[in-house]
Amino acid sequence: xxxxxxxxxxxxxxxxxxxxxxxxxxxxxxxxxxxxxxxxxxxxxxxxxxxxxxxxxxxxxxxxxxxxxxxxxxxxxxxxxxxxxxxxxxxxxxxxxxxxxxxxxxxxxxxxxxxxxxxxxxxxxxxxxxxxxxxxxxxxxxxxxxxxxxxxxxxxxxxxxxxxxxxxxxxxxxxxxxxxxxxxxxxxxxxxxxxxxxxxxxxxxxxxxxxxxxxxxxxxxxxxxx
Length: 226
Hints:
By secondary structure, this protein is mainly β. The protein is 10% helix and 63% strand.
């Protein structure tokens, strides 16, 4: 955890220096009272998760996508709602619950993650180039795509195609609270267009099944102001 915190601190210092060095050439901003639409792209670092009973899950790094809406309460304060999703491969080592324990069993797969979050961003300068920091709270939904039972078949009558039958299979899923911190640089090359480059560290609560791991991500966010 100490190594992770040191790495985050170095990245935050780098983006702050980048934003401050360009601020002298930046113009006065005009954000107050404007709404924003954003398209974030995130590169989420892989992580090893330790669960109850000794089971471990190695999650691969991958790209995540999303969209968001925000409102600028002032030149400094920005309120933003974001929905994002991610599909990543993983390897899981299932620990035995027998006594004496049997050998662990390994499996691979891919999981889907959807999140909805609210962020408060603070821009340090009333300029078109400014460093920022952010705080985030939200909710995650994780689907492991591991079946929990046999498939069910449902049928209905379609007005054009007649009877249609499809199968559905429940999979193991989990929801949990998330919170995080971030920092970066906001650049507005045009009055109606901007982008943000930054880093975020989010903690995910999995309840009693695991500790609250942190997921470091790097993000590039395109935005339109109106």
